[in-house]
Design brief:
Elements lengths: L2 H14 L24 E3 L6 E3 L18 H18 L16 E5 L5 H10 L2 E6 L9 E2 L5 H4 L6 E7 L8 H11 E10 L8 E2 L14 E2 L4 H8 L2 E6 L17 H4 L5 E3 L2 H7 L8 E6 L2
Parallel strand pairs: 3-4, 3-6, 4-5, 6-7, 10-11
Antiparallel strand pairs: 1-2, 7-12, 8-9, 10-12
């Protein structure tokens, strides 16, 4: 890349607030992660790093080399950025520079640990906390059973944002957990919820199903989870990558979006451009729920 073009790109990115990160182990171009002439580039909507895609498009991949965020986590961050825009009328590009978060408190349930990511959240938010049931697979500051009122009571009516990603399927009494998550939110707070959705409706998992971290799976969810959320929250939106497209993944039921087709007004469709730009994974698994407390 010639120096004039490189300077132009660097200045444009700096004006937008993007972080041009030097990764020591990558020598091709020390000003960015990767090389512009090779492959597809992704902008991390969490830390602002620009990096080259080096893995497949699955929701568990596309790792950011700076903060470690993966595709499905960036769907959560895009949902938060959408909500900040709706609430404050601003358009923050990524979480790292979202000044609207500086007065907000967040709880994240059983997050994947990454020191850089946690540092950014601690600097960005008024307060960031993480919790886990038994502090084994995903240790956090708080040991919390989402179905136990005594555990959630200290944070009742106090949190602005709760992230609960890929946790609910492991909670036997998941409806009680949804009720308690709402109790912890302050008025106007939001829950960003993710569960694996491979099916067109709810079913009970077998007793022998466990995830890689040895946690038992109790539930298979479909988008009818929307109606369970309606009982606990004042309003619920569904974030999807795309809505009108053909599912190609063999692990996903081809009609899994059937329920949403008659609830389009409740859907936030990110679109193909955002999916590619922010590395949100395959559209078949690009989804989250935003649940609101009055």
């Amino acid at each position: 890349m010639n120096q004039v073009l490189k300077n132009h790109i660097n200045q444009a990115l700096s004006r937008l607030g993007y972080q041009i990160t030097r990764i020591p182990q990558i020598e091709k171009n020390p000003q960015i992660v990767g090389n512009y002439s090779e492959g597809v580039f992704i902008i991390c909507n969490f830390c602002g790093t620009l990096f080259r895609r080096t893995s497949g498009y699955h929701s568990e991949s596309l790792d950011c080399p700076f903060c470690g965020s993966i595709a499905r986590e960036r769907v959560i961050y895009q949902s938060i950025l959408y909500e900040l825009n709706r609430r404050f009328g601003t358009s923050p590009l990524f979480i790292n520079h979202a000044g609207e978060l500086k007065n907000l408190r967040m709880l994240e349930c059983s997050p994947r640990f990454n020191e850089q990511r946690r540092t950014i959240l601690n600097k960005t938010l008024l307060q960031y906390m993480s919790s886990d049931l038994d502090q084994s697979g995903h240790p956090g500051e708080i040991q919390m059973d989402l179905t136990d009122f005594q555990d959630i009571e200290p944070n009742q009516n106090s949190l602005d944002i709760i992230i609960c990603a890929h946790v609910l399927e492991h909670v036997p009494e998941y409806k009680k957990a949804l009720h308690n998550l709402c109790l912890m939110l302050a008025p106007g707070g939001i829950l960003i919820l993710q569960v694996p959705i491979l099916w067109n409706g709810y079913s009970i998992a077998s007793e022998t199903e466990f995830h890689a971290d040895n946690t038992r799976v109790f539930h298979h969810f479909g988008f009818d989870l929307l109606f369970d959320l309606d009982f606990a929250f004042s309003d619920v939106k569904v974030v999807v990558g795309l809505l009108d497209f053909q599912i190609t993944s063999p692990e996903i039921q081809p009609d899994k979006y059937r329920i949403l087709l008659s609830n389009r007004e409740r859907c936030i469709v990110l679109g193909d451009q955002r999916i590619r730009l922010f590395g949100l994974g395959i559209p078949d698994l690009c989804e989250a729920f935003i649940a609101y407390k009055k």
